[in-house]
Amino acid sequence: MKKLIFSVLALLFFCTAGCGAKTGNLERGKTPPKETVLAGGQLVGAYGSLGNDLVNALNQDGRQPLLKLQDGAGSLANIELLRQQKADLALVQSDVAWYAYTGTGPYEDRPLKDLEQVGTLQGETVQIITYDLTGIRKLQDLKGKTVSLGAAGSGSSLNARQVLEAAGLAEDDVRVQYLSVDDTVRALKEGTVDAAILTSALPHPALRDLARQRRLVLVPIEGQDLEDLVAAYSLYQPVVIPVGTYPNQTRPCASVALQCLLVTRKTVHKDTVKNFLDRLWPHWKELQTKQPALYRDVEKRFFLDPLLPLAPGAEQFIKEQKIGS
């Protein structure tokens, strides 16, 4: 499994190294750039949608610096964009951010020690989706099945491999496909995959639409599988996907959740982060109408218990806004 993770990261490095210009990352104290680049995700995916809504909200007043969205495969790819200074801010799953900062997991011997946290946006839940005719009702039923683990370079693909491991399944035990969200939904609709594992805020819009067209089944992470997963990867938090999260879902489903972090690097000017937060705050309620998973009690949750060192621009914003005082 390590070989596969490293090969995916190597592919990401060469792909991101060959495209896009570097951002205006500067030493602190110098003039910030006129454009701020946010690394998001696949256009039809959760991070692509969230990133696009952030860009539209913050750019509507025409103030500088304009926010530009850099699409990509997901959390792992976004870390590489930050590493290569092709993004100033990035949407990243909490586990991926921690692995990168500490040089563990897929970032063993490749830490990004100057990674900093700007805030926490929302919770994200691991979802194992199949449809009623497959007969898949528990994780071990995935053996011998065709399963989409998400796009290569996404946090979903990393989580999917960890879930399979906790269930006692090697990647050779399933027919693995690394598909984008769009391709995953299409494959589930057409029946060319038996199941998919993805991590996103609830509900995922594309899955919700699909559930209106065919009867989907959520496969739980429970019992010994849950205990083993949380014991091996402590950032997972046990959660329950409520009844009615998706059309025709009549039972709650046990799973695990992470968080979506907004992160940056020490090389990014602190005024870039401060300016972003100054412009984000007035639009938070507006963003919630399009992204209902965003934390509602933003002043309590956004800066609460940061997993990584807090960016100085965020600290300055907290002080000026008297948040938590």
TrEMBL record:
The residues forming the signal peptide are: 1-21
The beginning of the lineage is: Bacteria, Bacillati, Bacillota, Negativicutes, Acidaminococcales
| Pfam families referenced in this protein's UniProt entry, alphabetically | NMT1_3
Which protein are we looking at?
Answer: TAXI family TRAP transporter solute-binding subunit
**Keyword annotations from UniProtKB, A to Z:** Signal
The record, for Gene3D superfamilies, names: Periplasmic binding protein-like II
Organism domain of life: Bacteria
InterPro entries listed in its UniProt record: TRAP_TAXI
